[in-house]
Design goal:
Structural class: mainly alpha
Shape: flat
Number of strands: 0
Organism: Scytonema millei VB511283
Helix content: over 70%
Keywords: Cell inner membrane, Cell membrane, Ion transport, Membrane, Transmembrane, Transmembrane helix, Transport
Pfam families: BPD_transp_1
Oligomer: single chain
Strand content: under 5%
Subcellular location: Cell inner membrane; Cell membrane
Number of helices: 11
Protein name: Nitrate ABC transporter permease
Length: about 280
């Protein structure tokens, strides 16, 4: 059978089931097939003792995952809390640290974007600090602040500055000269030009920076909490590892991933909103 006849036969087969031609449905079916294949390989690997004895079976992990999800907010003391309480503590830290970092990065990015002299003066600091690993700030934070809670906020804030700062600078410095000339012709003051022309025009780039920063903040908080301790999803992962509860660690990984997707989607919606007309 040649290719043309084979393709024609496939098309006639799909035409009998038009709902199968929906790409989203096809992607969903493929997703569940891949997930089922992964779980099957996982389960067989454990049952046939191909993996380390520490590795739990997929069926046991799913059962433990469900037990964490159905009762996420129980509190039996400092060392026995539901995963929901750990998650809320981490989100609170990320929100505060992210807000502090953004409050520094956006005004500084606007100042750098508006002045070539300031941009050249500050750029060496940005280039020097940008490649520094977030965890490298932990000892410095502990030394300066002498508080694990404040250090976690410090690390989140300091690591969320660079993406927002760089994107804000880029957006402000690339505002169309036509917009600025019109504002100048109409006699708009400097502050009014910034508020009514520059910020709206640069908003998509600023929000893109915020979107990157929130992702980095969420990555950093897990690692930071493993070191500074206390209540939080990072501390939860570390404590469960010390107890060799691998199923709980896998549960936390799934929850961390889902929350990361949710945070990214929220900033993605904000980006779509401020990018109207572009």
């Amino acid at each position: 059978m040649d290719n043309s006849r084979r393709l024609s036969k496939q098309r006639s087969h799909f035409s009998a089931y038009p709902w199968l031609q929906n790409p989203n449905l096809q992607a969903t079916i493929l997703f569940f097939l891949l997930l089922a294949a992964l779980l099957l390989v996982w389960e067989l690997g454990v049952q046939l003792k191909l993996f380390s004895p520490v590795m739990p079976a997929a069926s046991r992990t799913i059962a433990d995952f469900w037990s964490w999800i159905v009762d996420p907010f129980y509190d039996n003391g400092p060392n026995d809390k539901g995963i929901g309480l750990h998650l809320l503590a981490s989100l609170q830290r990320v929100a505060i640290g992210f807000f502090i970092g953004s409050a520094i990065a956006i005004p500084l990015g606007i100042a750098i974007g508006l002045s070539e002299v300031v941009s050249k003066a500050v750029d060496p600091f940005i280039q020097l600090l940008r490649p520094v690993s977030p965890l490298a700030w932990l000892p410095l934070g502990l030394a300066i602040l002498k508080s694990s809670e404040a250090t976690a906020l410090f690390v989140i804030a300091i690591t969320s500055i660079s993406p927002t700062l760089i994107n804000t600078k880029f957006g402000v410095s690339h505002v169309s000269r036509d917009y600025l000339n019109v504002a100048r012709t109409l006699g708009a003051s400097r502050w009014r030009t910034i508020a009514k022309v520059i910020l709206p025009a640069a908003a998509p780039q600023i929000v893109a920076g915020l979107r990157i920063s929130i992702g980095i903040s969420w990555l950093v908080i897990v690692a930071a909490e493993m070191i500074v301790g206390g209540t939080g999803i990072g501390s939860f992962v570390w404590n469960e590892w010390n107890n060799l509860n691998v199923t709980s660690i896998i549960t936390a990984i799934v929850v961390i991933g889902l929350v990361g997707i949710l945070l990214d989607r929220l900033l993605g919606l904000l980006h779509s909103w401020v990018s109207f007309g572009q």
